[in-house]
UniProtKB/TrEMBL annotation:
Annotated InterPro entries: ARM-like (IPR011989), ARM-type_fold (IPR016024), CAND1/CAND2 (IPR039852)
Name of the protein described by the UniProt record: Importin N-terminal domain-containing protein
Keywords: Repeat, Ubl conjugation pathway
Biased composition (Acidic residues): 64-99
Region (Disordered): 60-99
GO biological process: SCF complex assembly
Organism whose genome encodes this protein: Grammatophora oceanica
Length: 134
């Protein structure tokens, strides 16, 4: 039952990541193709979302201290004669199947589109500069 729930969770996460990536791709197109007057009211929200997801990594434990990280294996009595396959089979390291990098890439492309759009307007560029450094 746990493995079925895990698979459903992984599928839900994959679908959410695909949706996020698609949204950012839409934002990039919107920012690149729309005239500035139509674009300006939406730039702040697009930029906030893109900046938030630019560093999105569900595999990184943001709350774990380095000391805790270093001590993870202190309690484990490792026997060098143990078969390495036993240790590897437990998790299969889900990082191989992780597509969150696509979300980060799409978010960064959206930011690049915002910067490019801002370069077409001095007032928009000034607003972007103030947003970044305030």
């Amino acid at each position: 039952a746990d493995s079925m729930e895990e698979e459903q969770d992984e599928a839900a996460i994959a679908m959410a990541n695909e949706l996020r990536e698609s949204c950012f791709m839409g934002f990039e197109s919107f920012v690149s193709k729309c005239p500035l007057p139509m674009l300006e009211p939406h730039l702040d929200l697009i930029l906030q979302a893109a900046l938030a997801y630019m560093s999105y990594d569900p595999n990184y434990s943001y709350g774990m201290d380095e000391e805790e990280e270093d001590n993870d294996f202190d309690d484990y009595d490792y026997d060098e004669d143990e078969d390495d396959d036993e240790l590897e089979d437990d998790d299969d390291d889900d990082d191989d199947d992780d597509d969150s990098w696509k979300v980060r890439r799409a978010a960064i492309r959206s930011i690049m589109a915002v910067v490019s759009a801002a370069s077409r307007s001095h007032s928009l560029l000034r607003r972007l500069w103030q947003y970044t450094y305030n």
